């Protein structure tokens, strides 16, 4: 069968590449084509266009490059029509992918599957109408999405497990002794975008200063961010940077300060106690997001999966040096919150389930497609 995949960022490229490998195992005659990245191409997909050509973040950037984005979407639509796939598999990237789903459904071209669903539970819940109309099946990687889609909106989905569990399990299998080499270090995961690093890193470094007589301070450098950008915030502090070794860093860390996102989940799965930090310059906007736009009680994936507060969340003006330092001290060895947080991680991991997310998704997809054919 023919599978057309669309991913629009690095994480989607990674997860989609594993799905392609799993689909090959289920369907040896499979052919793959689509929009994505290097990893998808290496897994065997014919790459029509790289996601970096269309990856624009923020309202201003999107408006400035709107013509490029629209041309990309037109190219994608025509390519799907010409290639005639048996299914289109959308991977996250909702701004682009939900428009593609609408087009494919309206044209009656083929089934539309969503792997890594759009985060409607956090914002833009009204998009559920488009999902219900245009998406045939959702293969979810977050267990709490089942309640959101099925109980709240009556839209059945498949929870297949979380691919981050697979990635960390694979790392730990390849580095069996790494977990036994915990060092006295505090990991700083300050985000992947310049504004996140600018807003959070200086506060993280200052908060950790009293502990530098006992702990090394190491930043997980984000891809595409030059060392010089970090240096302006490090100044004369004794802080290290490592690139492309986030899992190595987490497997060695004693504790971590982490911006919100998948990094919080990775940190928890490595059983590293953490403080989740996300400073925002515009305080009224932060309050608006929390009170009006954010539809969930937490903003870290750890707490959302666990269904309770396992890790402290410091958002907007709550993310200050005093709060960050107090919570960091509480999760370091001997701290009042360390053991409780580690116990909470076990509960969270149990809810995520065992490795095998792409394999389970691929098996379900192929079975359903064969029934249709």
In words, what does this structure look like?
By secondary structure, the protein is of the alpha/beta class. It has helices spanning 10-26, 38-42, 59-64, 66-83, 94-107, 128-134, 145-152, 163-174, 194-208, 227-234, 246-252, 262-269, 283-293, 301-306, 321-331, 338-352, 357-372; strands at residues 2-7, 31-36, 46-50, 87-91, 112-115, 137-140, 158-159, 185-189, 216-221, 239-243, 255-258, 274-278, 313-315. It folds into two domains: 2-161 and 356-372, Glycogen Phosphorylase B (Rossmann fold), CATH 3.40.50; 173-352, Glycogen Phosphorylase B (Rossmann fold). Helix content is 49%, strand content 16%. It has a seven-stranded parallel β-sheet, sandwiched between helices. A six-stranded parallel β-sheet has the order 10-9-8-11-12-13, with helices on both faces. Helix 1 (10-26) crosses helix 17 and helix 4 (66-83) packs parallel to helix 5.
CATH fold assignment of the largest domain = Rossmann fold
**Cα radius of gyration in angstroms:** 21 Å
**Cα-to-Cα separation, first versus last residue:** 10 Å
Please trace the helix and strand order, writing H or E for each element: EHEHEHHEHEHEHEHEHEHEHEHEHHEHHH
CATH architecture of the largest domain: 3-Layer(aba) Sandwich
Q: Quick one: CATH class of the largest domain?
A: Alpha Beta
Strand content: 15-25%
Helix content: 40-55%
Mean pLDDT: 90
Strand order of the largest sheet: 3-2-1-4-5-6-7
Described by the principal axes of the CA atoms, the overall outline is: globular
CATH superfamily membership of the largest domain, which one?
Glycogen Phosphorylase B
Overall domain count? 2
Biggest sheet record: 7 strands, parallel
